[in-house]
Amino acid sequence: KSAAAFCLAFGLFWLGNMHALTLPGDGVHVYLVLLCVALALRLIAGDTTPTRWRFALAALLCCVASFTFGSGMASFIALATLLWPQRGGLRRIALLGLVALAALSLYLSLPDATHTPQSGVSHPLQSTQHFLQILGMPFVYLFWPLLDPAAAAAVPGPLRGIALATANFWTAHGGSIRTSVFPQALIGTAMLGATITATWRMRQSGNAARLGIALAWFGIACAGLIALARGSY
Q: I need a labelling partner for 63 at 20 to 30 A (CA). Which of 3, 12, 74, 80 fits?
């Protein structure tokens, strides 16, 4: 439990996440999405057969999340992950899919110019590459001063020489870490495979593990949305 608490705290409060943690402009929409996701999962977690009212309220929270920020659509994936090992889960996943489709259709029908397709939509294979690269980005953020010469130059004096030497070596042999495919895509593929394996074994997992897997799929779905909707960016 202590190790799990450490991983959770580290994942939320590590310095690479400072941007989202400290900018009010990001927190307004990002944290409302996460609050809706947490409440929806809490309504479903622990029950072998959640009541209709709990399921309906959880689906409504996913709709609120989806109209709050683009990543809110990923909340449906998180909730479906938590539902499928439960009794009657497949039937409720199908119903949840209809709710998600209705929410997406309503969203796309709103008279807003931002819904127009972006120019230069990526090829499916390129979108897949971007998706896997995004999943591997924690590696980049964790070791950024050792991979990017610009970041290495900002390292405090005693360690700056080591950081610059490492970052220059990496850039010379692997290219700019901002645009390179390796090792981000490889790490992303490994993370995706590990999550699929854990999901397959969810029926033998406890409630805490199921919640963790559901949140993992929320993050994976967010990466997929970014790769599809913001590929040109």
A: 12
